[in-house]
Each structure stands twice: as structure tokens, then as C-alpha cells.
Design a protein that fits this description.
Length: about 325
């Protein structure tokens, strides 16, 4: 059943009431724990958070086949060479992963771990060379290059089914972090406006007087002396508006808006690109390898993108990595 039909009929899907409550607590804790002091704050968020969990689960039903993170898989799975600069960088990721270490520290867990891998895509344009059909090389050809940075293993699970089931919760967690970031940015903007307002007030109070350090009261973007009264009115109105948004009721209203309309702030889909070994977007005829990936888009205006993959690695794979690159294991041990 699709998200919208499930939402219409009020189903809870795979998420229990306890799951929903924990998700509500996580959202409030990330943004401002004091929101829970407001009357019926939990009840006001319950249906929206439940619907958001249904929405994220419905989006991440089909991830591409998992990457093979064994040493042999690095050479046989062409996708891995497009995502990692070297075997050393993949080994470093595996050795540094707290989620992977926690998974294999439990003897009862299966020998295979299924990983939820996230990275930042970087898209840029450049001029490069291209081999033509007649064998000549054409220079200064516009090319689009995709690179992948800041690799992170979010979680490790005992099966691909579990990973697909929990990926929706991880998408929800990403939304929570993004909401908290938005509130933090708004508070930073408020502080900037308050600092400007203090400068305006001091300049208004000092008009007609000689100040020892008058330059300290003027910033590059400050208005002229004649426009100070008008600027003060604008600042007062803007600060009053932001104060309402940053109040506890204002923050609760913001959270309700987010979880009532998750499709505005979070989009997840499967994308495909054909890349050569240097990350240049090309065609299959020109030797490009197909790369399917999940793409998460956070935000309504200043959209942030994350690429998502599933991956598989076993205990024996990790042992082989450590045998081939023992310096990585030593580096991790020395940093603890």
C-alpha cells in the first residue's frame, strides 16, 4: 500500500506505537528538549511523525544491489572503484566504522554485515579531452564530473531485508538532524541581527558627539546615518518575528509543519549515471560503467544531497583487509 493510501486509512505500517514515540522523542531532543514541557506536545506530533515514518519507508523500498566490500570485490565490482580512490581508502572506512565494530563485537550476529553507506556527491564542470571515433583526440570538451566524498557507515544490520526496513528510520533521523540544523541557523541569524541592532542604537545615541572609536560601530553593510531610524524599525520587526519562531510554541509549530508535509523537505529516489574511471559522465558506448545509487535530498530551498548505498562485508573479509593493510588497523588502535 502506498504512503498516501496508508496515510488516508490511518495504518501504522511496520512501525509500532513505541517506534513512533521514540521517533518523537528523538526529534524533540535534537531541536530543543524543552519543547516536551509544552502541553500535549507529544500528542500534537504523533500523527505527523507516524506519517513521516511511513513516507520515508515507502521511499526506500528498493536500493541497488549491495556493494561487495571484500578485497576481491574491490576488483570485481566496478562500482566500488568509482566510489573509492583506492583499496586503502575503503580499508580505512571499514576500520574506522564504529557501527561495524559494534556489530562484529556481538558473537551472536551473523558473519555477514549489511551496511548503510552514505556519502556526499560533488558535481562539477571541467574541460577535458575526448577520443573520437576516427582515433583523433579532441581537447577542451565540456565534461561533467561526479566525485564522492565524506564516506560514512551509518549502521550495520544482519540482513538486506533488515537494512531496507530500517533505512526509512535512518532517513527520518537525517530529517531530524536537518531540522535541528535549520533551527540553529535561524538562531545564528538572530544573533547577527541583534549585534547589528546594538550598533544602530549606539550610533543613534552618539549622533552629534565625538567618539574615540567610532569605526567600531560601523560594519561594511551598515546604512547611512540618515537611514538609521528606518533600519532600527526593520530590525525590530525582524527580531520580533524570529523571536516568535524560536519560542517553544514557535518551534513546536515548525516541527508540526515539517512532519505534516515531509514530502516538501525530504525526497529519496534511485538515480543512474554512466561514469568512466575518472568519474566523468559518459555513455556505455564510450566505456562508461553504470552506477545506480539512492539519492537523498534534504531541504526545501537550499537542498543538500546525499548518496546512499547498501554494502556487504564479512568477518573474514575484514581479516583479509587487515592482513593486506595492517597499518590501518594499527592506526585505529593507536587513536583509541
Amino acid at each position: 500500500m502506498s504512503f498516501f493510501l496508508t496515510r488516508w486509512f490511518g495504518g501504522a505500517g511496520q512501525w509500532s506505537r513505541r517506534d513512533v514515540q521514540q521517533a518523537i522523542d528523538r526529534l524533540i531532543e535534537q531541536v530543543d528538549p524543552k519543547i516536551s514541557l509544552l502541553p500535549r506536545s507529544q500528542q500534537q506530533l504523533h500523527r505527523g511523525v507516524r506519517d513521516t515514518l511511513l513516507y520515508t519507508s515507502d521511499l526506500i523500498e528498493h536500493l541497488p544491489p549491495p556493494l561487495d566490500f571484500s578485497p576481491a570485490g574491490y576488483t570485481t565490482d566496478r562500482r566500488i572503484g568509482l566510489l573509492f580512490a583506492s583499496p586503502d581508502s575503503l580499508c580505512q572506512l571499514l576500520c574506522d566504522s564504529a557501527a561495524l565494530q559494534a556489530y562484529f563485537s556481538q558473537p551472536s550476529n551473523p558473519d555477514d554485515a549489511y551496511l548503510l553507506l552514505v556519502m556526499h556527491p560533488q558535481f562539477r564542470q571541467r574541460l577535458g579531452s575526448q577520443l573520437l571515433a576516427d582515433g583523433q583526440v579532441q581537447n577542451d570538451v565540456p565534461q561533467q564530473v561526479i566525485s564522492f566524498e565524506n564516506h560514512s557507515i551509518l549502521a550495520a544490520y544482519d540482513s538486506m531485508d533488515t537494512l531496507q526496513r530500517m533505512a526509512g528510520m535512518e532517513a527520518y533521523n537525517a530529517l531530524c538532524r536537518d531540522v535541528a540544523r535549520r533551527v540553529s541557523l535561524l538562531d545564528g541569524y538572530r544573533q547577527q541581527l541583534e549585534a547589528e541592532r546594538q550598533r544602530v542604537l549606539l550610533r543613534l545615541a552618539s549622533q552629534g558627539q565625538t567618539l574615540i572609536n567610532s569605526d567600531a560601530l560601523t560594519a561594511k553593510d551598515d546604512v547611512s546615518d540618515a537611514d538609521l531610524p528606518k533600519r532600527r524599525q526593520v530590525l525590530d520587526a525582524e527580531l520580533a518575528r524570529i523571536a516568535g519562531q524560536l519560542s517553544l510554541p514557535g518551534k513546536l509549530d515548525f516541527l508540526r509543519e515539517i512532519v505534516r508535509h515531509p514530502e516538501r523537505y525530504l525526497k529519496v529516489g534511485t538515480e543512474s549515471a554512466y561514469l568512466d574511471r575518472m568519474g566523468v559522465v559518459t555513455t556505455p558506448e564510450q566505456g562508461g560503467a553504470r552506477l545506480d545509487f539512492g539519492l537523498v535530498q534534504l531541504g526545501e530551498h537550499n537542498v543538500r544531497e546525499r548518496v546512499v548505498f547498501a554494502a556487504r562485508v564479512s568477518r573474514s573479509d575484514l581479516k583479509q583487509w587487515h592482513e593486506r593493510w595492517p597499518q590501518q588497523e594499527q592506526a585505529v588502535g593507536s587513536s583509541r
